[in-house]
């Protein structure tokens, strides 16, 4: 007797809960209409790549990509959530739909295009080798027998593997671009091979020297999305607007990107 009564109570409770859910859904406002109830746009980055993405002293994300992502989210009516991960894990995070987009100074190369979709390109850079100021390394020919550091999962990793065959150097791979600089300073690598824009910043900040890689022509940077994402068209539209209004140029100036 008692148990069937309590079963009834539970049932009545469940019906009430379901009814309550139903009524808020029906009567509720459209999800993206009101402030504080915005759709969330999940972005991932690898915040080791100034001036594109890094963290300030308080741990807040900052950089060109961060500002750009905020403009895009604002324009499309989303609340932006940023997640920091290893660069090497970004494509996987898109493939498993754990995030909606990636801004990480990521080059829109053909290999990645098999696994993710890209927006139109927003910046073009190149590659550089950087080293300590007292180093005698001054060109590809002087890399023989040296240790060249690269960030895992980058096009520079692939490029260095390729170049090492011809120029006879060893390639050391690390997770984080910032660690490459520590590795130079503590003599664990002779040279770091990285994006030219980012290398220039580190050279200035750390008193390093370097030279351009004359052999590369890397693709431009773009925003990456899961394959087939409907966001690509929307974001491309916003990029076009932001370019036309001069807002992207303002960001280039703010973060001192080379043209
Ligand atoms: N542009 C290079 C690439 O796509 C390096 C990007 C590294 N980005 C970063 N946030 N660490 O492979």
Automatic annotation (TrEMBL):
Location of this chain's protein in the cell: Cell envelope
Membrane-spanning residues: none
GO cellular component term, pick one: membrane
Primary location: other
Signal peptide residues on this chain, from the entry's feature table: 1-19
The UniProt record lists the keyword Magnesium: no
Domain Ionotropic glutamate receptor C-terminal stretches: 40-259
UniProt entry keywords in alphabetical sequence: Lipoprotein, Palmitate, Signal
Protein's name according to its UniProt entry: ABC transporter substrate-binding protein
